[in-house]
Structures are given as C-alpha cells and as structure tokens.
Amino acid sequence: MLIFGYGSLVNVEHLQAYLGRTLVANQDFMLCRLQDYCRCWTAAMDNRINLPGYKFYVEKHSGNRPQGVVTFLNIRPCSGKTITGIVFDVSEQELQRLDLRERNYRKVDVSDMIDSPTSRSIYAYVGRKESDQRYQQGLEQKSAIISRDYYDLVYGAYKALGAEALADYMDTTDPPQIPIVDLEKCPVTSTQE
C-alpha cells in the first residue's frame, strides 16, 4: 500500500528507523503534493490513560505526566491549498504497525488528490473524530500541548527538503494555538487504566 506522509513521516531518517529499512528516493518514496488540504494541530491523544503498546509523555524537566492531551499534526480540507509530503510503500506487516502507531487517525483514500500519477491507491492518515474532540476539549480546558521534539522533527523534515518545501509547510500549516512543551515519550506495556 502507498501512504502519503505529511508530518513526522516526511522525516526520512525517522521513517527508516521506524520501518527498519533503508529507503531510496524515487524508488521507495517520492516527494509529491496533496491538493485541497492543509495541516492543522488537531489530532490528540489522552495522556492520562495507558493503552497497551502505546506511548505516553512525561515532562523532561520534572518527569511528571501532564494530565491532558498531547496533540499532533492532522490534515483538513482546504480549497485552493496544496501540501507537500512524501508517498512511500509499506508492506502488510509495516501497515499493521503503522495503524497501531496512528491509532488516533483513520486511513483515507487520497489517490485522486495527489499530483503524482499512479495506478495504485494512496492513503493518508486523517485524525479520527474522537481525536479532534479530545483536542477541542483540551483546548477549552487549557490542557492541550504539543511535544517540542515532535514539532521540531516535522519542522526539520521540511527544512531538510529545502527552502521551498519549508515555505510551503509554513504557509499550509495552521499555527498551533497551544503550548509547545519539552516532553519525553515513554512506551506503555501495561493494560489500559
């Protein structure tokens, strides 16, 4: 399956480490554009609960676990805007792992909106309704935050693609309305609380 990455998955080093294999440009992935979408900071996970095999975050300076939601990039329909990202191929096993990692998102077929023609279907992870609701609630309660490492990872990915890609990222991404905080990601192995 082909996946369109528009956030942390644009960082090829990060993606290679996650997939556990080397990716060759124009063979395993290619730069492309998704039409009529823009990025927004609205996909949130509840940091107060443990989910089997899923992450949670603690503050780097104190080790305390923030009692709210941690927010990630999402995409939303946006007529006239076009976002730069990468399309990459995944095996069935890699897709299953990605689906677990991206549990706050659902796969949406965006094949007709990608500027690079292919006969294969291309999917993007779009925030689930519940994920957006968590963000909205966290925004209202002033308990929504973004991990600085994640924010910097995405920014760095577009910066590495060059000045044009970085300018595109900044132009087609809603500015965060919530604090960016120094967090450390921790894996969870216990059952849900």
Decide which structural class fits the backbone.
alpha/beta
What does the overall shape look like? globular
Q: What's the total count of β strands?
A: 9
Please mark out the parts with pLDDT under 50 across 5 or more consecutive residues, or reply none. none
One letter per element, helices H and strands E, the order comes to EHEEEHEEHEHHEE
Overall pLDDT score: 92
> Count of helical segments?
5
Major sheet description: 7 strands, mixed
Strand content: 35-45%
- Measured distance between first and last alpha carbons: 34 Å
The Rg value, from CA coordinates, equals 16 Å
The percent range for helix content is: 25-40%
Notes on the protein architecture:
By secondary structure, this protein is an alpha/beta fold. The protein has helices at residues 12-19, 92-101, 129-140, 148-160, 163-171; strands at 2-5, 29-46, 55-59, 69-89, 105-109, 122-127, 144-147, 180-181, 183-187. The strands form two sheets. Strands 1, 2, 4, 5, 6, 7 and 8 form a seven-stranded mixed sheet that branches. The chain has a two-stranded antiparallel sheet with strand order 3-9. The longest helix has 13 residues, at 148-160. It is globular, with a radius of gyration of 16 Å. 32% of the residues are buried.
